[in-house]
Structure formats: structure tokens, C-alpha cells
Please model this.
Amino acid sequence: MSTLSVKQFSACTNADVADALLSLASPLLAACGEDDAMKKLLVSLAVTGWNLSLFESPGEDGYRQKIEPRLPAELQGDKKEVFTRFILELIAAKQATYPAMLKGIKSWDLQLKGETLTLTVDALPVKPI
Model:
């Protein structure tokens, strides 16, 4: 006879995912000041980190290999390393802080109005519950 076990989980909404992502990226977003292009770049990289965090960890070197091709070509030297560290730290923070949020971000839109950031995401479950 088969045994069925049911795991209890709390579903997260797209708004929950967007809020979590902004909270993880907020220290660097705040440092951008009024540079909207930099804010959009950081959110783009944060989305990359979020999605990478959902899969089994290949270790820091494995993540680096997945991150580096996704960085903008114009980033060189120290800037490339700063953004790589940002994504690696975001992955670690996401896994530690939001381990139950198992939705990958399919698309996103960032609206900037003054100092207010509004992020909307379209997220889908990536692992069976």
C-alpha cells in the first residue's frame, strides 16, 4: 500500500516575490542615487541571481560561470567583480531568507517615479511542492 505525505506550504504571490527581490537589492539600489539606468541594471542582475538561487547550488565557482556571461559587456575589471559579488551575495541571502519562495521570475518591469521604485514581476513555480 502506498503512503501519501502532504507538505504544508504557504503560497507566495508575484507581489511577494517582487517585494522580496527589492528588499534583497535595496542596499545597492539606495547607493545608486538618481541613476535610473544603474537601478534598472541592478534589478536585472538581481532577477538573474534570484532565478539562479532556485536551483541546486553548483558552489560559488559554478555560480560565477553562470553569472559572468549574463553581465553587460561594458563592465570591466573591478566593476565586473563588484556586480558578480552582488549577485553571489543576493543568491546566498535569498536562499537563507526566502527558502520557501520557489518561483522563478519570467518577466519584470521596474517603474521609477522620483525616489519610489515599483517592481512588478511575472513569476512561476519552478519546483514541485
In short: Residues 77-97 form the longest helix (21 residues). The CA atoms of residues 25 and 43 lie 7 Å apart. The chain has a mean pLDDT of 86. Residues 20-121 form one domain.
